[in-house]
């Protein structure tokens, strides 16, 4: 006998979506000329029409940010700046439900995650950085450190509001002003954030939001009025940005791709590890740069472990992102779904064995069943390339050193997981793994006090904690 | 009795703890301040650089896993050995740069003292840049700086010894291994320093030194996919944009510095690692 869950959808009533949006520049909502649709990836319903930022719009935003910097923001004391950030944190908490619902509608992620992870962490980020604003002389960077000026920030579609918070909060706390471009497919929470800035009474032009696509992002990166770039997205685009700014005085931080290893030793607590692996790869549909997309498991426990993992995967509920029981929501876009399909087919073609639980996927929208590939070797594309979807590649190892070597055999180095009940072994593995964030016996944990960022081709710099803060101050980088 | 003929030194490269000639068979002429011939050092090639990267990569695991105390003692040992050969370096600098003896003595003294200064940083840099992070949950969370890996260094043209020491000491202090390209016009103090390093318990491959043309070799440093970082303090300003563009291929950490003694020089070639560990019974 099986028990079915009754539908438990969150109400959309808290959210009002306008039929058309412009930009938020110099404290005003201004109309755009060209538009493109943003859709609900779970239903393909068009949610709104979004402005496509061009040169004129980016110019206006940079100008507004510079004016706000010179006239208001740079003249405020750190204490007063901080109070605006505290206000923003509080308003995000007050309007948390609205943000969570809107995020799930525009992004396709389960409401359980937008409600319990994205929005609370976004508010926490503003609260944390608010407290830094009047303490910068104690940040370990000397008393002469200064803000860069106007910061261009380009954020991805996987955690739209949270990535906005990771970018905007430290920039404002350190006295910079901002031109932010949300991702093409997920602009709505950033546009709602503009309302939060209004409610907080933030001076006009301190935060400017220009929607658009990659071409809009390139205009921001190459704009001579931008003093610093902060980008989160693919390694491919990150390299283009690094090349574009070569030889300029622009400072850059990059949070890029990953192919994280989740390393399970034979002395791990098996059931806990299975939960950790599931969280590591299926959290947010695997649309996570630090996702544990390679399970690297000790051969002696591999068969038993895979059986338990499959049994657990059969319980994953795939469907309506607004349903409070949903574990796995919609793939964010058709383009991303195609990429996941293409790489999965490469997994089949290269000889790995694919397995997914029986699950019925909705007819409309973009969906991909939770999937694992066993028999994966290090040369397979699914072991090397970032899939950015709910697809796990399983590799095995015999000796601990072989496990480490396989884990490190990637140009990426954002995160890694270690599962073992032996404390000294987890610390040994944490020391050997070449990654910026190591989770031992846990995975996908984030906190504003905890620096996040990658080794190797996973990026430049850190976000969060004192380390992340200093990236927004001049005089402490090494140029 | 006839005048004794000096035994002159053949200047070679320093790769993986050995002193090979360049595989290319090329040399170039170095003259002293009066324009007289001194030596024919190696004109290193791309292949020599590749060999040096292989040696530096192989040495990284052992060197970065050595204790900070051990690394500190080895850097201090380089200072001891250099002090012992102080007069040789003073006369080399006088000969090459044509400076007054006092100025040459000051440069050698400053180089020795700088090695001592960086020796003391090996076991303190974590206290400066590490952290325990009070996350909102039952986790013990800490951040530590770790060495980056293999780092290239294009040495400044002037102050051939001090500028050279100011590059390699901070790079290796944290556990990186280095491939240094000596000053093109004044490479001899750097090559003599290789003899000091070779007798200071520095493991083979931790420091590798090439001589040659910066304009020829710097682009190969920038595009090499197994070099993680690059100190371009000595690079011709005209080449900076090209080198940074090329380094973007593997997102190399590329920096240049003005201060010779700064912990920023150490931290520029380190990565922060954050570790989360659950707390519970």
Short descriptors:
heterodimer, A: 479 residues, alpha/beta, Aldehyde Dehydrogenase, Chain A, domain 1, Aldehyde Dehydrogenase, Chain A, domain 2, 2 domains, 7-stranded mixed beta sheet, 6-stranded mixed beta sheet, B: 281 residues, 3-stranded antiparallel beta sheet, 10 strands
Secondary-structure blueprint:
The complex is a heterodimer of chains A (479) and B (281).
Chain A: E1 23-25, E2 28-30, E3 35-39, E4 46-51, H1 55-71, H2 78-94, H3 96-107, H4 111-130, E5 146-147, E6 150-154, H5 160-173, E7 177-181, H6 188-199, E8 207-209, H7 214-222, E9 228-232, H8 235-244, E10 251-255, E11 261-264, H9 270-282, E12 294-298, H10 299-313, H11 334-349, E13 353-355, E14 371-374, H12 381-384, E15 391-397, H13 400-408, E16 415-419, H14 423-432, E17 437-440, E18 459-460, H15 465-470, E19 473-474
Parallel strand pairs in A: 6-7, 6-9, 7-8, 9-10, 11-12, 11-16, 12-15, 14-15, 16-17
Antiparallel strand pairs in A: 1-2, 3-4, 5-19, 10-18, 13-14
Helix pairs in contact in A: 2-4, 3-4, 4-5, 9-10
Chain B: E1 30-31, E2 37-39, H1 46-65, H2 68-84, H3 86-97, H4 101-119, H5 125-129, E3 131-132, E4 139-147, E5 150-154, H6 162-173, E6 177-181, H7 188-198, E7 207-210, H8 214-223, E8 229-231, H9 240-247, E9 253-255, H10 263-267, E10 270-278
Parallel strand pairs in B: 5-6, 5-8, 6-7, 8-9
Antiparallel strand pairs in B: 1-2, 3-4, 4-10
Helix pairs in contact in B: 2-4, 3-4, 4-6, 8-9
How would you portray this structure in words?
The complex is a heterodimer of chains A (479) and B (281). Chain A is 38% helix and 16% strand. With 479 residues, chain A is α/β, with parallel strands linked by helices. Chain A has two domains: 253 residues, Aldehyde Dehydrogenase, Chain A, domain 1, CATH 3.40.605; 180 residues, 3-Layer(aba) Sandwich (Aldehyde Dehydrogenase, Chain A, domain 2), CATH 3.40.309. A seven-stranded mixed β-sheet of chain A has the order 13-14-15-12-11-16-17, sandwiched between helices. In chain A, strands 8-7-6-9-10-18 form a six-stranded mixed β-sheet, with helices on both faces. In chain A, strands 1-2 form a two-stranded antiparallel sheet. In chain A, helix 8 links the parallel strand 9 and strand 10. Chain A is globular and about 65 Å long. The relative contact order of chain A is 0.14. Chain B has one domain: 3-Layer(aba) Sandwich (Aldehyde Dehydrogenase, Chain A, domain 1). Chain B is 42% helix and 16% strand. Chain B contains ten helices and ten strands. In chain B, the strands form three sheets. Chain B has a five-stranded parallel β-sheet, sandwiched between helices. Chain B has a three-stranded antiparallel β-sheet with strand order 3-4-10. Classes of the chains: A alpha/beta (479), B alpha/beta (281). Chains A and B meet through helix 8, helix 14, strand 17, strand 18 and helix 15 of A and strand 4, helix 9, helix 10 and strand 10 of B. Strand 17 of chain A pairs parallel with strand 10 of chain B, so a sheet runs across the interface.
